[in-house]
Amino acid sequence: AAAAGGGGGTRVCGVECGKMATEVGRLRAEMRQASQAVEAARLHATNCSNGEKNAAAESGQLRGRIEQLMNKVTSVERQREQERATSAAAERKAAESAARAAELERELQKERVERREERVKGREKSETVSETQQLLREKETAWERESERLRNDSRTKDAFIMEMQAELVKLRMIAKSAVEAEDLRAELSLLREKTVHLEENLAEENKLKQELFRALRNTQAERDRARQYDYSSSSSFYPLSPTLGSPGSNGTHPPIGSGYTSSDLPSQQQPSLSGLSCAAEQAFAGASKHSYSFASPSTHTSSFLSSGTGQHTLFELPMPPTVGGKVHKNHGFPLVGEELRDNEKEPFYAQNCGKFGAPSPASARTTTTS
User: At what angle do helices 126-230 and 361-369 cross, to 10 degrees?
Assistant: First the structure.
């Protein structure tokens, strides 16, 4: 009956390991997709940065153009004020000329009256009157030419003012486009901040994963050293498990972080590995500080470690190897008293080293030795 129960447990373990291998493939595909998305986000951030630089350069050119046009408008306005002052002076001069013409007209009328009187009295002053009339005609002709010139100047200035108004409308449109460029630059800055925040989150998550792998490799080294002392006591027949807990009566392991401790297990199933237990408790206590969750068999087919976001599997149990058509027990780990083969001398999660930015096994050995 015990042999039948062991065979059934082995078959269940094989099925669970097959499911875990399928889950590993799916999670690796998800990780590749996430890496591609990160690369796309970085490329988009680079494009946005280039667009921001181009927009800043164009905005600087527009500012320079606007300053030039504003200076030109200022000079035009000053010139317009001067022309207005000149026009006002010309108008005053025209008013004075009109007043003088009226005065001359009155004088002419007076002279006409006097001429009539002189004509009555005699024609002694006829030549003087003719000269005066000729002078008045010449003055009137000069005043008409001056008035025509002033009218032409006024029309030219009005046309110039219309051109300046059209140029001012163009300047206002350019200023509006500069404001739109400022809004675009603000949006690009917000997108760059989001990208930087995403990269910081990814770096923090990789750092936590590296710490967890380092703790697990230290635990594996402690377990390997403890295993060397347990080869002589083969009667215990206790398989070491990466979950740091002894197997129960049904062949399952208590989930880490689910409330079970080593004191809750039967006393005859607890190994005397004080150094290993201490290292494991320190490793998983450090991992719990960073909000890493450990899946339980009630929700998954097997125990594995996941990241704080729940999107990536950090490591999992390997498939049990088959030797001579028989499935190896205890997830591919040798039992106490068995000889280690060449392909079993490496820890089961040493194959997973290097994932998610974790250090290599060589660096782990160096750290453990030091």
Answer: 70
